[in-house]
Please model this.
Amino acid sequence: MPKRSDASVTAVSCGVDWISATLGREELDNQTWLYDCLHALSEVQALGNTYKRRSLLGFDGWESGGCFVGSNDTMHYAQFAGKYANDAYHMMEHPKLHVSRLDVQLTVQYDVELIKEGRYQYARSIHHNKGLPEHRRRKIHLYAGSDGGDTVYVGSPSSDNRGRIYNKAKQSNEQAYERSWRYEVVLRNEHALHLYRRLPSEVATATKLILSYVLNWYSERGIDVLGVEFGRENTIAPPKQPTSDVDRKLRWIRNQVVPTIRKLAELGYAEELMEVIAEAIAAARTEQEQS
Model:
């Protein structure tokens, strides 16, 4: 197993990973805000995600790629997740906006697999916690995975200020995140709004601010991110693009459907399969033309 001290950083990315917010319908330019959020949602759709009606948390609206924009009788609501949140947050600006949740993340990829990094950071945080007065000590939990998919939570689930460290490769099962550990800070209500107001719309400047914020947040809790320091030259890449609905469905077809098709073809059902597939494609085209 590679030594932790021998690991080198190969890539760093950071950004907004989740944002959810509400705006009252009585506020000035509330419809403009809603249209801006719907435009951001249409950009999620343009990346290959389905766009459909949905009700969520008492709001009726539209969903795409795990993101949602909707309204009820008194408020508008929008939530964006993952890379989509990092693209959309600057389009949600409004002086009367209430940000209920804002997640920021730092993802670090190494040249070697650090299976025990979560446990190492858990131990560091526990050690730091013991040095605090009892009334200031935080809840810290480690959820161990047999495959190295450990997750560390720093702070109470009910806290408005909580951290999460996990093996991003194990969590996402995406090759792009091989050998990567993610450090997230989940902020709610006043904490979320305070950081949101500090985020500039210019991407490079916002990225540096988020990098500094996450590093400082964890440092104050006894955790230093291996190989990443603010003020040092870090090559920061934009957050990786999430897998779209289309990508997921195509992967499912390759992994689940294609083997079945091959087996049926070997049993002499090739013509029937071709007819079924042709009929499905024709029906989909007809629906598209009618809509």
Summary: The chain has two domains: 4-237, 245-290. The two ends are 57 Å apart (CA to CA). The helical segments are 30-46, 83-88, 117-130, 168-172, 189-198, 203-219, 245-266, 270-290.
